[in-house]
Amino acid sequence: MKRVWIKNTISFYEKLINSFLFSTKILFYAFFVFCILFFYQNNSYAFTENEYVINNAHLYVFKFNPKEVRIIPYLNDYPIRAIDVVNYYNPFLLVNGTFFYSNKLLGALYMHGEPQSYMGDNRATFFYYKNNTASINYLKYRVKLNICSSSSKCKVLYLDGINRPQNYYENILYTNGYLRPVLPTSGILIKINEDGTFEYLYTRSALPTKGGYILLANHDLDVLNNLVPTDTIRVSVEPIINSNLDFYISGGPMLLYNGQNIAIQSSEKEYIANDIKIGNRMRTGLGIDASSNIYVFSVSWPGCTLNELANSLEKLGLKEAMLLDGGYSSVLYAKNRFLVGSEARANISYLMFFTN
Questions:
Q1: By three-state DSSP, how is residue 124 classified?
Q2: Residue 26: partners with Cβ closer than 8 Å, 6 or more residues away
Q3: Alpha-carbon distances of 214 from 115, 148, 170, 194, 237, rounded to whole Å
Q4: For 131-152, how does the pLDDT look when each residue is reduced to its tens digit (9 = 90+)?
Q5: Per-residue pLDDT reduced to its tens digit, 167-205
Q6: DSSP state at residue 225
Q7: Contact predicate 183/158, CB 8 Å
Q8: Same domain, 77 and 129
Q9: Per-residue DSSP letters for 69-85?
């Protein structure tokens, strides 16, 4: 009788242990599957990807839920290879940034709470906010002139833009980042130095000095007409931005606005060269749809025209879309490989995408 009891007890504990081991295996496998699904979702489903063909070129379109990604701009003092940025920061997607020439940033970029460079306003710009949402609109600046003299209080004068073509706008401030000569046809031409001193210019061609400005104003500005040599002019250029802004980056032209193809009109407004407008080019850009999803798109070699690209994006349902730098600056890295451009392509600025 005692042996039977011992045997039954052993059998009971064996079954209990086997049940425990079986349950442990089930929990382990369930946890393993959960980890795989979690990893897969956060690394493979941070975006959806589609590929199309335009003019024998590949159009890659990546769509992001803004809650699932974080976009961080990258800026360097000199052109740096795309592969070096990828290896150091390990983003799951990398795209080239705004315009540059040699070691100088030409496009507008705002990051770390201040403008890193200026560009003429009314340029297509991608605005990214601290809550991970984004918008695309035209960049606008406010130029403030603080004009002081020893005989009276300081007077403040606001101008409506910078780096605008003088044959189209009045009240223009050319910064030292604008390398083309100023060729005024009328108005007041003033060179403003970094220390606030100034001089009237009477030449038809002038270039801003380092840290200085060239101001072209119309004749209605009595304050500027009646300056004396002891006056000083302090200049500040302020982008008109939202307090919730994280960064902005300009490009152009605007391809879609309110869901409409405006590539040709905006090319004229933003003074895009004809060969860029109608020629086949590799291109990269950003977009947004009505549900606030963020898009990155890029066209591989041999490229396409602006109108062809805008038509394709319009059919995909984007609401706003704009170009970044393009041509041989085009870089798109995703899915652990370079889809457009090469790893040796070097730019000054990039946009890096990370899972949030």
A1: strand
A2: none
A3: 19, 18, 13, 11, 13
A4: 999 999 998 888 888 999 877 7
A5: 444 556 776 656 666 666 667 888 888 889 998 887 767
A6: H
A7: no
A8: yes
A9: EEEEEEEEEEEEEHHHH
- Domain limit, last residue, from 220, 239, 258: 239
Quote the tokens at residue 326.
């393009």
Give me the CATH number covering residue 162: 2.60.120
Closest CA to 294 of 85, 83, 39, 64: 64
Two tokens, residue 335: 């899915």
- Whether residue 270 lies inside any domain: the answer is yes
Residues 113 and 94 occupy one common structural domain? yes
Q: Is residue 327 part of a domain?
A: yes
Same domain, 129 and 186: no
Is position 65 within any domain?
Answer: yes
Which is it for the CA torsion 304, 310, 311, 316, positive or negative? positive
Residue 201 and residue 321 in one domain: no
List of residues 6+ apart from 191 with CB closer than 8 A? 198, 199, 201, 206, 208, 209, 212, 213, 214, 215
Residues 162 and 133 in one domain: no
* Inter-residue contact 273 to 248 (CB < 8 Å): no
Q: Is 216 a domain residue? A: yes
State the amino acid at position 36 in one-letter form: I
Domain boundary among 206, 239, 272: 239
Hey, what's the torsion of the CAs at 153, 154, 155, 156, to 10 degrees? Answer: -150
286 plus 267 within the same structural domain: yes
d(CA 100, CA 48): 30
Give the single-character DSSP code of 92: S
How many domains are there within the chain? 2
DSSP bridge pairs for 352: 72, 94
Q: How confident is the model at residue 42 (pLDDT cuts 50, 70, 90)?
A: very low
Q: Which residue range forms the structural domain that includes residue 105?
A: 47-139+242-355
Q: What DSSP assignment string belongs to 267-324?
A: HHHTT--HHHHHS-EEEEEEEEETT--EEEEEEEEEEE-HHHHHHHHHHTTEEEEEE-
> pTM score, two decimals?
0.78
